[in-house]
């Protein structure tokens, strides 16, 4: 079994570097220092993300008779999130490091033991400045008192008057205390943390040009999840589409959470995209359908290039699930920064529709014409993070292959995307850019392929270098128009091109007239 805490920071650093260098993902507002927790997708990243969303939609909506789609508003009515419980309970306990002002989730601070050195304040040696403010530093033992004093001096110098340095300070009221399993200190530097306080994870806004600060009807939110718009529109969709239970409503869209500590590249962001399904069913079918959706989603990940053995299924135990959930599976992937969640599949019972029926006063009941029953449907929710899945696809695809011979190193960087996920499906080259006939044929091939798929034309540099450039962005097939295409080396290969496979680097001849169908068969 894989080690949940095993990480590979060097590999992750290479992936992040490649993403910027080759135009997959950039830091948002980078020229202004960056907007923490927000990311922009470049040309290749936008294509990759689009491919993922389109394939998800095809698998879960277009190819099924029991799921329909919707696209809900990002701005969300206050009453919707009051009824769902978000306004009253969508928060995390937060504490701040007194030394660095770093914000941490209180429930994620590890318990630590050691010696805490406490101080009541500090003053300058010449008596011109003083402050009374309690501070503490946790160190391994009393023998590390010097380290504790250095850290405390750094804290008090931030409060000191201009011109007062750490060397000018005298710490006041020092006392040492042995502590066991304390969560009051920052594990990074030993500094005392503030007391935990609730931190609202939602982005609040005002709706309307003349909205009053005290008018509750003018309060709006950037939605923290896509699910609530589905629950609110469930009855309209049921009536307009004439669906019968069991059926699902799918949505892909942006959500926003004011994360305390965005981290691990695009994995945890403040603005992200979800791919979600709410599947409505009878209560007696909920557990069975949860297991069916689990298998369906595992197959999906295999089909986008993430092998099943890299997906870990966590059956969330009682006490750790949401209070309304009878069953939850977390699908986790082996990222270079550890095993982390990609998707949750939750049996949410009838909590959501029941809450909105109570909150709105409108009936959310389903009427079964055959049995003549009325009941509030239960819900199974497969909810995947689009950005997390894109990151997983990138991490799984990244490879460095040693091709050197005779002791000479030659490392090929290659993104082994599944062809249906690859941002560029094929690259087309004339062998020689000065050969007008090769260039003409190559550009005709590009013109034929472009309506069907993203392709890239390249005539700069040696063909080997062109191959390597395409390997690095994950292009699965490279098409070269050469002298055989022109019939200069015999008639048997005239009007054919060389197609080179990215992963094996093997080549084959394909007639020019068959190139389009040859590619379509392999990328869809």
List keywords for this structure.
single chain; 524 residues; alpha+beta; seven-stranded mixed beta sheet; five-stranded mixed beta sheet; 31% strand
What would your notes on this structure say?
By secondary structure, the protein is α+β, with helices and mostly antiparallel strands. The chain is built from 12 helices and 28 strands. The chain has helices at residues 9-21, 43-62, 78-84, 86-89, 145-159, 227-241, 286-303, 351-360, 386-397, 436-449, 463-473, 515-523; strands at 25-27, 39-41, 67-69, 75-77, 91-96, 103-105, 112-124, 130-139, 169-172, 175-182, 197-200, 203-206, 219-222, 247-256, 271-281, 311-315, 327-335, 338-349, 366-368, 373-375, 378-385, 398-402, 411-415, 426-430, 455-457, 477-481, 496-501, 507-511. It has a 7-stranded mixed sheet, with helices on both faces. A hairpin with a 2-residue loop joins strand 17 and strand 18 (338-349). The chain starts with 8 loop residues before the first helix and ends with a helix. The mean pLDDT is 92.
SSE topology sketch:
Blueprint: H1 9-21, E1 25-27, E2 39-41, H2 43-62, E3 67-69, E4 75-77, H3 78-84, H4 86-89, E5 91-96, E6 103-105, E7 112-124, E8 130-139, H5 145-159, E9 169-172, E10 175-182, E11 197-200, E12 203-206, E13 219-222, H6 227-241, E14 247-256, E15 271-281, H7 286-303, E16 311-315, E17 327-335, E18 338-349, H8 351-360, E19 366-368, E20 373-375, E21 378-385, H9 386-397, E22 398-402, E23 411-415, E24 426-430, H10 436-449, E25 455-457, H11 463-473, E26 477-481, E27 496-501, E28 507-511, H12 515-523
Parallel strand pairs: 3-14, 24-25, 24-26
Antiparallel strand pairs: 1-2, 4-13, 5-6, 5-11, 7-8, 7-9, 7-10, 12-13, 14-15, 15-21, 16-17, 17-18, 18-21, 19-20, 22-23, 26-27, 27-28
Helix pairs in contact: 2-9, 3-8
């Amino acid at each position: 079994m894989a080690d949940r805490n095993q990480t590979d920071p060097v590999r992750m650093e290479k992936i992040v570097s490649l993403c910027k260098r080759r135009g997959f993902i950039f830091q948002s507002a980078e020229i202004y220092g960056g907007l923490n927790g927000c990311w922009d997708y470049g040309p290749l990243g936008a294509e990759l993300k689009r491919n993922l969303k389109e394939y998800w939609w095809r698998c879960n909506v277009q190819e099924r008779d029991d799921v329909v789609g919707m696209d809900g508003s990002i701005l969300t009515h206050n009453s919707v999130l009051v009824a769902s419980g978000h306004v009253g309970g969508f928060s995390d306990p937060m504490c701040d490091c007194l030394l660095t002002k770093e914000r941490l989730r209180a429930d994620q601070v590890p318990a630590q033991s050691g010696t805490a050195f406490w101080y009541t304040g500090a003053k300058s040696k010449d008596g011109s400045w003083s402050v009374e403010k309690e501070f503490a530093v946790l160190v391994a033992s009393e023998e590390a008192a010097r380290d504790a004093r250095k850290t405390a001096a750094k804290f008090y110098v931030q409060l000191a008057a201009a011109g007062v340095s750490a060397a000018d300070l005298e710490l006041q009221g020092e006392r040492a205390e042995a502590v066991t399993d304390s969560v009051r200190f920052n594990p990074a530097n030993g500094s005392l943390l503030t007391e935990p306080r609730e931190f609202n994870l939602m982005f609040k806004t005002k709706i309307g040009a003349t909205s009053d600060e005290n008018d509750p009807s003018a309060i709006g939110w950037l939605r923290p999840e896509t699910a609530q718009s589905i629950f609110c529109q469930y009855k309209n969709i049921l009536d307009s589409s004439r669906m019968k239970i069991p059926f699902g409503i799918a949505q892909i869209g942006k959500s926003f959470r004011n994360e305390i500590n965005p981290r691990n590249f695009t994995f945890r962001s403040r603005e992200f995209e979800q791919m979600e399904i709410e599947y409505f069913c009878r209560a007696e079918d909920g557990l069975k359908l949860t297991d069916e959706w689990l298998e369906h989603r595992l197959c999906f990940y295999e089909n986008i290039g993430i092998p099943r053995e890299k997906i870990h299924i966590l059956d969330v135990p009682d006490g750790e699930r949401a209070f309304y959930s009878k069953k939850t599976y977390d699908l986790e992937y082996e990222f270079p920064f550890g095993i982390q969640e990609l998707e949750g599949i939750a049996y949410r019972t009838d909590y959501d529709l029941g809450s909105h029926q109570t909150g709105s006063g409108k009936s959310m009941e389903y009427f079964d014409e055959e049995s003549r029953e009325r009941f509030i449907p239960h819900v199974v929710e497969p909810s995947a993070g689009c950005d997390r899945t894109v990151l997983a696809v990138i991490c799984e695809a990244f490879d460095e292959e040693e091709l050197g011979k005779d002791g000479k190193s030659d490392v090929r960087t290659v993104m082994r995307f599944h062809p249906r996920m690859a941002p560029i499906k094929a690259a087309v080259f004339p062998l020689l850019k000065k050969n007008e006939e090769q260039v003409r044929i190559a550009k005709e091939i590009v013109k034929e392929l472009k309506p069907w798929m993203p392709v890239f034309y390249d005539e700069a540099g040696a063909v080997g270098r062109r191959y390597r450039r395409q390997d690095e962005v994950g292009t699965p097939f490279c098409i070269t128009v050469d002298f055989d295409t022109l019939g200069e080396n015999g008639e048997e290969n005239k009007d054919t091109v060389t197609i080179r496979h990215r992963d094996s680097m093997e080549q084959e001849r394909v007639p020019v007239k068959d190139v389009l169908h040859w590619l379509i068969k392999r990328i869809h």
